[in-house]
Amino acid sequence: MLDLEENKRFLFELQNRLHELEIALQISDLDCELKELEKQTLQEDFWEDAQKSSAVYSKINTIQKKVNKYQNLKNELQNLLELNELLLLEQDTELEKDLLSNTQKLQKQFDNIEVQTLLSGKYDENNALVTLHPGAGRNRITRLGRNALSNVHKMGQ
């Protein structure tokens, strides 16, 4: 019973994070932008400029992915909150294990989407050029440079 109470508090914390995520992702603005872009696709001359139509469809897909990820998180969180409430009323050890497991999975999804949100600025999808210059502590900077290069290489895979 104590695990369910702790889980309930944790789910409410996730609900607060979801609200912050909604603000960070600007979901309402994305919905409006999506409607505008979809209106553009209905115009008769939309298909005349292939490059423009391709860019618009690419933008639509990007926005839809963001909104769908958010909606999926929201729906999953709501389902887990409801299941938690039901399990507080009627105990079921199997469902409780599933609930706790799914809560952990949801937390990982939150963590992933929050990192993606942090790295979703105007230039974040572009490549970066990093230059390391050894200074007075040549041996130390060489080790640091190798470690940094190794980490960058791992992230790029």
Quick rundown:
The protein is mostly helical and 157 residues long. The protein has 5 helices and no strands. It is flat.
Q: If you had to describe this structure to a student in words, what would you say it looks like?
A:
With 157 residues, the protein is mainly alpha-helical. It folds into 2 domains: 2-125, Methane Monooxygenase Hydroxylase, Chain G, domain 1 (Up-down Bundle), CATH 1.20.58; 127-157. Helices cover 79% and strands 0% of the residues. The chain contains 5 helices and no strands. It has helices at 2-25, 27-41, 50-89, 93-118, 138-156. The radius of gyration is 23 Å and the shape is flat. It starts with a helix and ends with a helix.
**Total domains:** 2
Main sheet properties: none
Total number of β-strand segments?
Answer: 0
Proportion in β-strands: under 5%
Mean pLDDT: 84
CATH superfamily of the largest domain: Release factor
| Element pattern in H and E | HHHHH
Which labels suit this protein?
2 domains, flat, single chain, Methane Monooxygenase Hydroxylase, Chain G, domain 1, mainly alpha
Topology:
Layout: H1 2-25, H2 27-41, H3 50-89, H4 93-118, H5 138-156
Helix pairs in contact: 1-3, 1-4, 2-3, 3-4
